[in-house]
Amino acid sequence: MEFDFSPVIEYLPTLLQGVGVTLLIGLAVAVMSVIGGQIVAVISLYTRKVVNWPLRFFIWLFMTTPLLLQLYFLYFGLGELILIPAIVVGILGLGFHYMAYNADIFIATIRSVSSGQYEASRSLGFGHLNTLFYVILPQAFYRALPQLSNNMIIMVKDISVLSAIGIGEMVYVSQYAISVTFRPFEFYITIAVIYYLINLMMEAGQTRIERRAAYRR
Amino acid sequence: MTQSTEPPMVELKGVKKRFGDLEVLKGIDLRVDRGKIISIIGPSGSGKSTLLRSINNLEVIDEGSILLDGVQVNRPDLKGLAFERHINHIRQNMGMVFQHFNLFPHLSTLENVTLAPRKLKGMKASNARELGMELLERVGLADKAQSYPSSLSGGQKQRVAIARALAMQPKVMLFDEATSALDPELVEEVNRVMKGLAEEHMTMLIVTHEMAFARDVSDWAMFMDGGVVVEANTPDHLFSHPDQERTQHFLRKHLGAQA
After folding, report:
1. Given CB atoms, is A135 within the 8 Å cutoff of chain B?
2. Which domains are seen in chain A, by residue range?
3. What residues of A are in contact with residue B95 (Cβ under 8 Å)?
4. Where is the signal peptide (chain A) (predicted)?
5. What is the pTM for the complete model shown?
6. C-alpha distance from residue B208 to each of A86, B17, B25, B125 (Å)
């Protein structure tokens, strides 16, 4: 069998469009799941059962069911009731999924901040909320970084699942290109290399961030 | 202690505290006048740390009252947010130094010192910086302003913690075994800073195991055991000729161990 990468070059603009969509979705999901994860963690730790039990149920639900099922449910299930654009469903679905995972991390790291930190802050005159905001959460965030960035690296790969609901990310556009050119190997190899490069960049970023965070823990 | 017309800086009346069935403070009365330094000594579990923490309301007392400069600290009549506002305000007038420093590891040394004045007093960044540097200078750590706590020694951490507490310009400083977690050779640098405060007539309550330091620096010394004040006197009297047998026993054991 001979490899011929000329169709790949021909369809490069299409592929790059897919890369763009993947990166854009990745960014949106990262922002949503990190900020949302912190909010969910704080609410589930510091509020009454009436409020935090539904949230814990939410975390449990998203962590114990497959991502693909969640996406189908949101897109085709809820789609019966209300028409939501696929890209919105994709970002929300993936966002909620990783929000649950990130919340789980934040709950653990918030708990790991010693009570002495809380007392020191309160003894200076900071209230409960200010203490959370200025003292506890920043420390919990720095401690969460290694696991958080691992989650985000896995998340970027999971964006490929969104092809199932017709979102034009990398895998989806390559499927399209393959259906026209009949060169599956070349396209899959190319896509794999692009994923590898994205991962490489994320890992480099992760190392840099963690080095800066290490002495702040 | 000498009586004055001004209200005492700190006053405790009949303070009781229980942890479950265990009564750890069994009715403590104490009066600390402005600019005076009180040392509290006693065996582990005697209630001395609980007493200090109660003054800051880190432990909520069950009975009695605590006053800071004439204002009642514990307010059983206030609930929820009203008490929260009250205690946050009160605490700004009290500096507390902990055994394990409790510096904020995510902030630089200077930021540790300036966080409270900036966020609670709304001090401008430049003014806070000036104040922070002044305080770090005072504890001999101006050159560490940009360092993070993880790179400091125990003694340096505790000196920063003292500077952080001073940044709110408190009326009284509470030291809860400030040198107990330090290596012996680091104790002196912290004691020196505390002596400096004494010379500036800062009102201080010091819970300590450092008998020589307590004797040297304080105006009044208290020996606690089993949740009561067994004996209180001038440090010379308490350390040289304690009246109570329990005090004699404790000092013999402790000074013997230190010698």
Report:
1. yes
2. 5-215 (1.10.3720.10)
3. 123
4. none
5. 0.88
6. 66, 21, 18, 36
